[in-house]
Amino acid sequence: MAGAESGGPAAPGEDVKPFTPETAKEIVMSLQQPAVFCNMVGDWPALHWNVKYLSAVLDGKTIEFRIGSKTMDLVPQFETRCSYVKATLEEFLAWSSGQPSCLSGPFSCFEYSKYWAYADYKYIARIFEDKAEIFQDIRWSDFGFPGRSGKESTLWIGSEGANTPCHLDSYGCNLVLQVQGRKKWHLFPPGDTSFLYPTRIPYEESSVFSKVNVAKPDLKRFPEFKNTTAHVVTLSPGQVLLVPRHWWHYVESIDPITISINSWIELDADHEARVEEAITRTLVCAIKSAENPSDEDIWLNPTEVEATSHEINLQYLNKAVSAYFKCQKANVSEQTRPSSTEAERVTSPSHKRRKKQVGWEPGGCKLLTHEFDSSTLKAEKFQKIPFGPHLIQVLPQPQETSSTGAVKSDYRDLLHENEGGHFGKLHCTRKQLAMSNDCETPANQMDSDGSPNASQTALSTNDLLDCLVNPHVISLVAQLLLERAGV
Predict the structure, then answer these.
(1) pLDDT digits (tens, 9 = 90+) for 369-392
(2) What is the pTM assigned to this prediction?
(3) From start to end of 88-162, where are the E strands?
(4) I need a labelling partner for 363 at 20 to 30 A (CA). Which of 205, 224, 412, 471 fits?
């Protein structure tokens, strides 16, 4: 989407914005496809948050960086496959600029030409806890969310190549401000879920990962990926990307240093999503905890503190169900009277990765008021989305290209290469493809009917979980549970 790169921040001192807060909010709550806001944050002090400025503000405070390899393979670089170091932003800046001083620092084991570093998911309220005044540098009130500032936002600082594996967020929609450098976003609609081979391993509440490395897809193992519809955009400083609910995204830093700030906007649909997440946690923890531990199978994402007990998970599930019904009643009551100004104030922190925040329980109905019900602000109410130079659609890539720019006929060629071998003859299922990089089966492992024998197709615990906690299955289980609880 070349168009998004032409819309930069507003001129210095310009405070006239193309959309009022009310209009911006209607766009955010009604639009069901990604789009880029331009010229909305030109007067935000946060636009000055480059790495040198933040280094001075943090004044030697260390933060954790995730380290990954710049060499791409066919498997996503999940957080369980990364290394971690604690460093200051000054040390990160020295390393990313190739200064000799980093040879003995925390990045000394990681050559810049071979590795990337990412300080991701850093809650601003946490890392700047002693500098609360800085929260006001971020003004989501311009998008119609009064009271939302840096306190409810997350900071991302990365080097070139730093990336987030393809995933969808279970809760809310997402507003992302690009501050320094550029990031390339590959987005896929919710309807592409089955083509992206969803998995909950590694497990993290509120994140459904894809087994596909979008930057280097293994089409032999994941042939349905060729059916995805990628929406790709390069986000530049001063632009704000809207990621609608349940849109998949793979994000990569393409400049030497990138800084982003985001905030997840709560939706009424999150009430049911929390029930679904509680069911998922209960199943994943119960099944994986019963399995013999393996050093090679790190199933819990580093963002999760521990595998919670079955008793705690059931308590969490019951609280989520109770919160769902409580908020259903509150919404019915809210619809019978005009919403007050105070009801429109949102001050809750993001629900993304909130399990790491001490004391959170899924009962905060008062923070998710009727005004956040996306179903009440569908496109039919907001008659015409004002696309133009200030709001740019992130359009699907042309059909002849893939999400990574490869010609889709190349995908077909890759599949045709296998037609003369076992891949084409055996019509391998997804579970078989997940066990190896190819489907060649030695003759002595074939049954008399020509199909692989039981030893070749043995299912793993993770195969079972991929079916049990598939988003479609969990959604159905949640509906059945809520029906039972509501009787």
Answers:
(1) 333 344 344 545 556 899 999 999
(2) 0.79
(3) 115-123, 154-159
(4) 471
